[in-house]
Amino acid sequence: MTEKSRLVNILDKVLPKDIPGEIIVLTQHQRVSRMRQNNLVQGSECEKMLVRVRVEEGGRVGEEATNVFSLSSLRQTVARARKRAETGPPGPLILSGYKGYREMSQAPAATSTQSPQAQAAMLAPLADLAGKANLLVDACLSAEIGELAIVNTLGLAAHTKAAFSEAKISVASTTGPGRGCGYACDRNAEKLDVIAPFFRAAAKCQASERPLPLPAGEYTVILEPAAAADLIRVAAKIFFDGRAFLERRTPFAQLGARLFGDQLSIWDDSLDPQGLQMPFDFEGVPKQRLNLVNRGIIQAVCLDNETAAQLKTVSTGHAALPDSGSGPIPRHLAVEAGNAMIDDMIASTKRGILVSRFHDISVLDSCAAVITGTTACGTLLVEEGKLTAALPDLRFVQNLSRALSNIEMTGDETKLFGGLWEGLLVPALKLNRFSFLTGNTGQV
Amino acid sequence: MAEGAEYAELTAVEIEEKKLRMQNSLLASRGNKEAGISVRLIAAGRWGFAAGPAASKTAVRKLVKAALEGARVSPPPAFPVGLSTIIPAQGSWTGPCAIDPFAIPDSQLADILSAADRAMDIEGIGQRLGSLHFRREHKCYVNSEGSSNRQVFTLSGGGICALSFGEGEIQQRSWPSPGGSYCGRGYEYIEELALPGHGRQVAQEAVALTKSPPCPQEALDLVLTGSLLASQVHYTLGYRLQLGTLGAVHPRQAPRLRLSSPAVTIHADAALPGGAGSFGFDSEGAKAQSFPLMEKGRIVSFLSGRETAAAVGRFSSGSMRSGSWLNPPVPWMTNIILQPGTCSLSELAGGIERGLMLDTPRSFGVSPSLRGFAAQAELGWMIEDGVITHMVKNPFYRGNSKAFWSGCDAAASVAHQKNLGLMDKGIAVGHLVVPVRIRGVRVGESR
Questions:
Q1: B129 shares a domain with B94
Q2: Are residues B256 and B205 in the same domain?
Q3: How close does chain A come to B378, measured CA to CA in Å?
Q4: Cα A252 from chain centroid?
Q5: Is A72 an 8 Å CB contact of chain B?
Q6: What phi, psi does B319 have (nearest 5°)?
Q7: Residue A264, domain extent
Q8: Would an 8 Å CB–CB cutoff place B244 in contact with chain A?
Q9: pLDDT score, position A438
Q10: Which of A316, A301, A308, A317 is nearest to A242 (CA)?
């Protein structure tokens, strides 16, 4: 008997037979090794489980959760959900009736068996490299595998696995304020390259010593893929959340509105083999490509069963992760690549700023699409086509719609960013007229 | 417990939770029960940690094995983990809970949210939100040095929020803060929050904000109050005093470093009755402590655990906390108390020629170095010649944390003290704050 049928069979045993219901199980096994100041300081392993039960009883919906996966605990959780329905929201509980999903095995054995020793061996060269360069490296190497199983009383029985590994590397100067970050992720921990992001981080660190102040104003910015991904993640919540659209919290009232520049096309595709695949969403609705922005014009928003019913349409397959508190948002976004290399972007810039990452982005007004945050992990001044000086972390307040309307160039390759159940493919972007506040060190 | 380990600790938890949320009269509720065990140990000079949901002997052995494997990897560490000494403590602790929230029927809790929802239901309000959250945690701890304890935590929280949709903008007002405020007590805290009683004012202010003038762009004196002040203390002072947090002040700088004017004194008190961050023992088994963090603007102590304290030749301040049993603990804020001054609120405003009174954060962000910050309040009240004149919208201010707090010249008296608890990375932190006056802050509209 395969593992898939084991999970689903157990859920089938406790699924109520007399009322509509759904049970979802998410498991996660994560192994993490941490390096601090060139020393491997901690190895950790944790197993998470989330079981969510939703039922409709007496015309109302009840929801309960647990992390104990035993028959008795599952039965108790179902009983509690039935009881909770007494004060729950009015039904109906809208269930997915899809069957026959594509099998997607994306959990290479290498990830599930990667040992602490293997992680330590992967990180060890960083300490040597950092020591020789008089740098301090902090690193977090994480490998995780997960399973998702959903059953419901309409006959849905879906199961998939996922694997994900990532390395977050931060390099600090021992002599000054210089800092740089690097990032890499892959479905297969064995294939993860930690050396290249280390060198990127080290180069940023060395380039960001002795930062100069910068007057407030609008600047051309060159966003490395990681920084562009930080903006796109926020864009997903502001522009593509179907619940926000229903509640009029989006910056547009109708689909078909021009929100961005011609150069921007965005879609969500969790079946793209380049990304981190997921065959169905957290309600069991099969995934398919959804075009969100075509040449700057908004085409669609993401929907789950509930928001789709309110709009009298069908779910786009974007039910949120249970307990995330989020609405239906895209978790597998891809931004169309262009034809420019970062070097071209720098060479064509008279005066601008190269941004490695953004930090702590928050939404000041979702309806006006105004966001704020700071740059991080290496911010460099570009003058006459060359990187000329380090800048401190700069605070920005920016209308995101306007920012993405001012795209001058788009990178020729996309980079992957993500997590166990999400993946973004984002290229570098060159934007004009990005608005920064005064950036003296510490005054951000 | 863990053969071959130099040190080991085991924590077992059982958690019961319920959350109720009402949006435009529509109620949603959810319950959760979870249990788990974590093992944290030092072997071969390095930390190992493992956590899992099961509670059988076999499962614990498996966790110990995994934690040992995580620690015992080569190469050996250049600097083995060192722990500061603590006197082993045994005992039990139960947080105060006069009215058990889990004994209150959901229908009664729903009635509170319904009443608040009705109070907010006025013309101009597009979205009404209310939430209640209760959490009970039973925690058992034992370590290899002889410390052991049993604790029972009850956390109650709630809040309301009204959104008004203006021309291309959304204005919001919350009580007592966006996402609600928390206290380490029972249902009695929810009664004290008086959510229905604040509903109408919250809604009226949200509507009024859409018609208010924008915040002027100039240097103004500020009076910070309520949950905005709690966030200001949390992010611009508390974070900087957590040893081990990136951007925190290093103890060797502390004797020379002022983080604020002499008008500011703050304490940490993990034993504060009913505080959101209260406990009997921290996550390393150290007894709850109360101590000054900053006296008259000068740093006198830090929030630390045994490892971070040992690294700087100090003893643990008993401030190790974790947002979940799935994560290793870190030094974190407990309850932070801003020492009251002697002014009334009208005296604080009376000393201002031109300024703003600000309450409730709409957004609060800090720079990666923790030295800079930016905040937007939900609303501002203009103060002109010592008198509050009118409401302004989108008040945004930012600056260097040290320079900002150096402008503090007065704090309100204890009569104005509020106990607000906020959740940060899953960890509840209590803030006892009184309004303060800050001179010469650059403010403006955020648009």
A1: yes
A2: no
A3: 10
A4: 23
A5: no
A6: -120, 25
A7: 217-436
A8: no
A9: 67
A10: A301
